[in-house]
């Protein structure tokens, strides 16, 4: 009972968590032992909009045929159910040949309204709407004149969540968890539309990825580190999201991801691994900044064929390093400001000099495909 009370205090005011041990993290990997993944329905992409402390995001990663890369994102954050803040972010990376700085805009939203069926998000000058058949999102934002968004993302492969509900739970009583982490993915989509900048419109015809994430606790209580891989090739897409809990939950590693081709899920599950094969100390914050990575997916197809996939190589010059405490909106600072030892940074990469190659084996068939890779490494706490 004392641990539970201390945990609730930590959730609300940010005091240090007690050591619960790994048993207080019920990884989605347990679900995946019997149900590796489930395909998404419209119900699985509904907004939760929790009253308790949480951060919920919908993020669209856009890979334009022109070589431009972008993500657009809405962040819905609640602090102990007392204060809710919603932010719209747009980030555009230009091809090296254009030699332009990153376009970044972040704006607090007003007039926020989630539709009665929980499928559509609205705010003043902003809307994310799911089509009636559940296969496409219309994403529009006039919240910032420097980055006017008007794109449509249409699903090609089925969406999936690992296990039965995509959720890792936190708490000493599994029947009454005090926190959760959930991811759902649309791993392969087409995109049409534009992001209009001060220099004119950028055509984002190409590929896209959609991820809905719910962190049902303070983010730094759930995860100390993150790795994210987003590969898009001519035929295949591969996605991976890995987080490591803080020592309070035994530094448990949870990994979800999958590989798709066209309208088929080749594999999805939790038996994946992200490794920084080379790294250097960042003198600004002492984090081990990755210089080369290896992402591995291992599992089986629905009909029992073994699946092995590897994506590895140098990361080249990073796209960006984000000091979260310096750049994120006020509401996130509120959530993590009182956490001792927290110094969150995100490192973003888009290697192009050595073309990323997905090496895939399905049963006896071996496939090698060149594509594009956007990857992130996030360090929050030791």
TrEMBL record:
Annotated Svf1-like N-terminal domain residues: 55-215
Subcellular location: Cytoplasm
Domain Svf1-like C-terminal stretches: 217-381
Cross-referenced InterPro entries: Ceramide-binding_SVF1 (IPR051385), Svf1-like_C (IPR033394), Svf1-like_N (IPR013931)
GO biological process: response to oxidative stress
UniProt entry keywords in alphabetical sequence: Cytoplasm
One GO cellular component, as annotated: cytoplasm
Entry superkingdom: Eukaryota
Family in the record: Belongs to the SVF1 family.
Protein name, UniProt field: Survival factor 1
Species in which this protein is naturally found: Oidiodendron maius (strain Zn)
């Amino acid at each position: 009972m004392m641990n539970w009370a201390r945990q609730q205090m930590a959730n609300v005011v940010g005091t240090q968590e007690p050591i619960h041990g790994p048993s207080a993290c019920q990884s989605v990997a347990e679900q995946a032992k019997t149900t590796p993944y489930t395909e998404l329905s419209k119900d699985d992409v509904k907004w939760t909009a929790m009253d308790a402390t949480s951060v919920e995001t919908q993020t669209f990663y856009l890979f334009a045929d022109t070589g431009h890369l972008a993500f657009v994102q809405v962040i819905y954050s609640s602090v102990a159910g007392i204060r809710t803040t919603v932010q719209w972010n747009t980030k555009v990376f230009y091809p090296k040949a254009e030699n332009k700085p990153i376009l970044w805009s972040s704006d607090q939203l007003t007039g926020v309204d989630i539709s009665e069926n929980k499928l559509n998000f609205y705010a003043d000058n902003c809307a994310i709407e799911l089509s009636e058949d559940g296969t496409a999102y219309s994403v529009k934002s006039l919240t910032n004149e420097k980055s006017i968004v008007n794109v449509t993302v249409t699903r090609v492969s089925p969406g999936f969540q690992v296990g039965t509900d995509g959720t890792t739970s936190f708490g000493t009583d599994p029947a009454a968890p005090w926190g959760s982490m959930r991811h759902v993915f649309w791993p392969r989509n087409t995109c049409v539309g534009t992001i209009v900048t001060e220099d004119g419109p950028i055509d984002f015809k190409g590929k896209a990825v959609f991820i809905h994430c719910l962190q049902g606790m303070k983010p730094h209580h759930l995860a100390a580190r993150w790795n994210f891989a987003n590969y898009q090739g001519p035929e295949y897409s591969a996605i991976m999201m890995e987080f490591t809990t803080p020592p309070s939950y035994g530094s448990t590693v949870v990994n979800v991801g999958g590989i798709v081709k066209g309208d088929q899920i080749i594999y999805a599950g939790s038996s994946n691994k992200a490794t920084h094969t080379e790294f250097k100390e960042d003198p600004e914050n002492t984090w081990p900044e990755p210089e080369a990575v290896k992402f591995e997916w291992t599992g089986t197809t629905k009909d029992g064929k073994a699946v092995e996939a590897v994506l590895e190589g140098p990361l080249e010059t990073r796209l960006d390093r984000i000091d979260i405490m310096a750049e994120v909106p006020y509401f996130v600072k509120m959530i993590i400001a009182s956490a001792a030892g927290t110094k969150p940074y995100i490192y973003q990469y888009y290697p192009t000099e050595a073309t990323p190659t997905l090496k895939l084996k399905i049963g006896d068939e071996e496939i090698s495909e060149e594509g594009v890779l956007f990857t992130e490494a996030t360090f929050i706490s030791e």
